């Protein structure tokens, strides 16, 4: 037996030593261990751990649930969900980024210029990462009933968290690939290969029903030791996002609008009690404020424990020692290849406080010389000492309270209540230092203002591309951007989805996206 003690500086969700016991076709390896906060963990030797021997105690279920969260952090060599789902596959896909030069070792040029194929490595990473989380969750949910717990409420909490996270992974898969195989219990590779891609409405039904079922078992808030777990407000917020996405393109389910309003309203109703509106935009992106303002965050911690964020090193250069944003060991992942688009810079209104907190247009380079280039700095903190360029401590917000407010405003406007929607939008504008909009604004003008506001508020967070898709304006926006920059491509709605990874098509025989 091996004794291991881990101290996590008030962070709860950090993985420990995953034991890969066997890889299934599409859903990755089984997790056998994960370390929770400030616990001494007795780990069996790897060759003694089996599926049947591991999921047998309350502590092991607790560790396994931590493993489900951990699947989002550093699941691939490129980083976690923040890098793969929200930066490379979402933000870089939009017109917020400009891939400056092509590097054969990097997928982001192909993604940015819509040259990606089923053989592009990032497609397999997205697929494998999400199904790894699904696999971890399925193993827990298949065995938790048989495990005795001292407190039944704790068992239901772990079940609820796991169901939420599994549904969340499927939602991200749907947004990337459309129809995907729905696997809701442990399977052998042969069984998994026989599962066809599931239609979009069935996937939405699964995701929404799973998250709705999780709400009862979740807590409204947690103590400091357990901050980072999924809460009731986070589940309502995610349901609001899922329903509003399903209301838009391509599903266009009109019944989802009322559902979105119901769940978004549930979050807004507990503001000041379980949800906090940050008074200053700058406060949202400081590691000291992790798990304070956001509803659902991917957890990171520095200190050389392999749980830091990779994201800042993808999007900002190695600033020189005289630059205010200098950080030791923070070199750019790939120098001068991935920058902020001119169209994003020009989209900010004059006086918008968010612009200089999101984008830096000049800096002092490592050689001490000034360099005029455009980079994201939203997740980079001045003066931090980190162990390496993958050691950034700031959490990544999967869904923020501002998103709930703006989605709620969007729903109100769709319902014809523009005058009620405007004050919601103005809360976000006023925090950004902008003048409020008039409540007499037309519905069409409100939509224009809302779309601009969402781009400014969430730039760099992987939100805008999915907005373009659900509004079905991605084709016109991207084609206009390509023409303005003399890029030699145009897109169609087929390009809203990525290609199914080639190895999945070859092994399981899935039909390819057009």
From TrEMBL:
Which residue ranges does the record assign to the SusD-like N-terminal domain? 46-244
The record lists the lineage as: Bacteria, Pseudomonadati, Bacteroidota, Flavobacteriia, Flavobacteriales
Protein name per the record: Starch-binding associating with outer membrane
Q: Which Pfam families match?
A: SusD-like_3 (PF14322), SusD_RagB (PF07980)
Family annotation (SUPFAM superfamilies): TPR-like (SSF48452)
Q: Which family does it belong to?
A: Belongs to the SusD family.
What GO cellular component term, any one, is given?
cell outer membrane
This protein's species is: Chryseobacterium arachidis
UniProt-annotated location(s) = Cell outer membrane
**RagB/SusD domain location:** 393-491
Name the Gene3D superfamilies for this protein. Answer: 1.25.40.390
């Amino acid at each position: 037996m091996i004794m291991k003690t881990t101290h996590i500086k008030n962070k709860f969700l950090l993985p420990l030593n995953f034991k890969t016991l066997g890889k299934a076709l599409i859903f990755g390896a089984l997790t056998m261990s994960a370390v929770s906060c400030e616990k001494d963990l007795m780990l069996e030797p790897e060759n003694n751990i089996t599926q049947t021997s591991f999921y047998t105690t309350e502590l092991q279920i607790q560790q396994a649930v931590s493993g489900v969260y951990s699947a989002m952090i550093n699941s691939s060599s490129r980083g976690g969900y923040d890098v793969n789902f929200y930066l490379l596959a979402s933000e870089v896909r939009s017109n917020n980024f400009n891939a400056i030069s092509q590097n054969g070792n990097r997928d982001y040029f192909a993604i940015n210029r819509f040259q990606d194929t089923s053989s592009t490595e990032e497609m397999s990473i997205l697929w494998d990462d999400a199904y790894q989380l699904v696999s971890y969750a399925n193993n827990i949910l298949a065995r938790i009933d048989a495990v005795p717990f001292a407190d039944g409420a704790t068992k239901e909490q772990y079940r609820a968290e796991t169901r939420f996270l599994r549904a969340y992974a499927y939602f991200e898969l749907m947004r990337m690939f459309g129809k995907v195989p729905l696997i809701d219990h442990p399977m052998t590779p042969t069984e998994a290969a026989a599962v066809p891609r599931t239609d979009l409405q069935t996937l939405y039904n699964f995701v929404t029903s799973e998250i709705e079922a999780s709400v009862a078992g979740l807590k409204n808030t947690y103590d400091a030791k357990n901050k980072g777990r999924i809460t009731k407000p986070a589940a309502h917020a995610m349901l609001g996002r899922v329903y509003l996405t399903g209301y838009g393109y391509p599903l266009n389910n009109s019944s989802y609008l009322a559902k979105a309003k119901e769940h978004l309203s549930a979050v807004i109703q507990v503001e000041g009690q379980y949800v906090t509106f940050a008074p200053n935009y700058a406060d949202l992106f400081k590691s000291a404020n992790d798990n304070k303002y956001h509803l659902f965050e991917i957890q990171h911690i520095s200190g050389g424990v392999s749980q830091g964020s990779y994201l800042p090193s993808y999007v900002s250069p190695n600033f020189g020692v005289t630059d205010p944003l200098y950080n030791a060991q923070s070199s750019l992942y790939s120098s001068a290849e991935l920058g902020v688009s001119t169209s994003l810079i020009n989209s900010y209104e004059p006086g918008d406080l968010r612009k200089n907190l999101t984008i830096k247009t000049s800096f002092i380079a490592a050689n001490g010389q000034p360099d005029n280039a455009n980079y994201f700095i939203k997740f980079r903190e001045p003066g931090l000492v980190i162990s390496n360029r993958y050691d950034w401590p700031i959490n990544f917000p999967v869904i923020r309270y501002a998103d709930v407010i703006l989605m709620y405003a969007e729903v109100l406007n769709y319902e014809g209540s523009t005058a009620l929607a405007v004050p919601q939008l103005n809360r976000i504008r006023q925090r950004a230092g902008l003048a409020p909009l008039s409540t007499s604004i037309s519905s069409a003008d409100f939509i224009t203002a809302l779309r601009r506001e969402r781009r400014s508020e969430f730039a760099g967070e992987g939100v805008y591309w999915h907005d373009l898709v659900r509004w079905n304006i991605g084709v016109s926006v991207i084609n206009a951007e390509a023409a303005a920059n003399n890029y030699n491509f145009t897109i169609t709605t087929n390009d809203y989805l990525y290609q199914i990874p080639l190895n999945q098509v070859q092994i399981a025989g899935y039909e390819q996206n057009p």
